Protein: GNAT family N-acetyltransferase
Organism: Paenibacillus taichungensis
Amino acid sequence: MLKKRDLHECHSLHDLMVDPAVFPYVRHKCRSYEEYLFATKQVIDEEEQNTCISRTILNELGHPIGTIDLYHMEHNTGFLATWIGAPYFGKGYNQRAKEAFFAELFLQHEIETVFLKIRKQNIRSKKAVGKLPYVKLVIDIHHEVYKLINNTEQIYDLYYVNRSDFMANEEMNHVVAT
């Protein structure tokens, strides 16, 4: 379901990313294939430097359908960015990708907290994150991060996942154990 990024999948991913239902919500807004290729190469380099972790999301046939990244990594925290191509909306890929990625982050890396900033108007992402029982909305805790991402106006809701909350989830303990 997840694999390390490589340049061979850029054509397929770029075609999915430029869809108007997806493009407004992606982190790297690359308008051309060449620009996307360059951005992907940068992400691969950043991962080699341990400043991000990036994976390609695959469907059951092994075709690339989106990406999931942890970026701005510092002090065992980072921000999550996920996008999936429109033909794959509503099929459970987002939730499965997040669960697999969180398992990797918390079990194989020293990540303690993952932040998810979601545009207030991005209803699809807010509904998707609501299906994950270990994701919490920032209210009082991490308020300084909330203020940082919304320094001029409040355009993002901020959620977070702690390693302990993720590991305490009974369903995930079963998945991790098998």
Q: What stands out?
A: Helices lie at 10-17, 33-48, 93-108, 123-130, 143-149, 163-168, 170-177. The CA atoms of residues 3 and 55 lie 5 Å apart. The first strand starts at residue 2 and ends at 4.
